[in-house]
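Data deposition worksheet. Section B asks for the primary sequence of the deposited chain exactly as it was used as input, without tags or linkers unless they were present during the calculation. Section C holds the resulting structure in token form. Section D is free text for depositor observations; keep each observation to a single sentence. Incomplete worksheets are returned to the depositor.
Section A, Depositor: J.P.
Section B:
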Amino acid sequence: MRLGTRHIQTSSIVRISGLFGIASQVMLVTVILLSIILSPWFSWTENFLSVLGVKGAATLLFNLGFVCSGVMSLLFAIGLGLNFSSRRLLGQIGAVCLTGVSFGLIGIGIVPRDEGAIHDYAAVLFFACIPLALVLIGVELFLLSSKVLGVFSIVAGGLAIGLQMAPWPWSGGAIPQVISSLPWTLWSVVLAVRLLRGAKGFGNHYSHSIVDGGFEEIS
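Section C:
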């Protein structure tokens, strides 16, 4: 009975985390778009997105939205991490990196751009952890025989790195910031949907063992 209860409780947490994963992306995109609409002075080619949290009518909306999105993203990362047992080191490290992405979002919202270096550190944490999380989780999923999802994650992580390092022609960073974040956004929605539908769909030859807290080989 105790094992069964734990199974149900953890399964519910995992599924709910999928909902948070989708909601975090919807909120982030919505907040950015609304902030830009409320800031007619904003220039895609001359400004960074974070300037929306410093001046104008959208300051509170932008900063609070990033914090809320980061918190929901953190809950998603925790739920995803529960799908990997302690024996799956790459998956666990990848989930930790995903929490780094979340803390980066929260930090960007809490510490506006004009507050100094702490904001820059939060932004670096956000962008640096994205490819690390996607590639590590992708490799683990591939090893778990979830080939398609694993390759998708690895490609998304590699694409994120490439877009971050690309020589963009604009003086502002808004467009590069958005484009380089798109692989993470798409990946998060895909993985969140899989969690929402049921974690055992991650692998073809593995069954999700909630009691063990992760995938367990059955073949």
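Section D:
The CA atoms of residues 3 and 180 lie 43 Å apart.
The longest helix spans residues 2-37.
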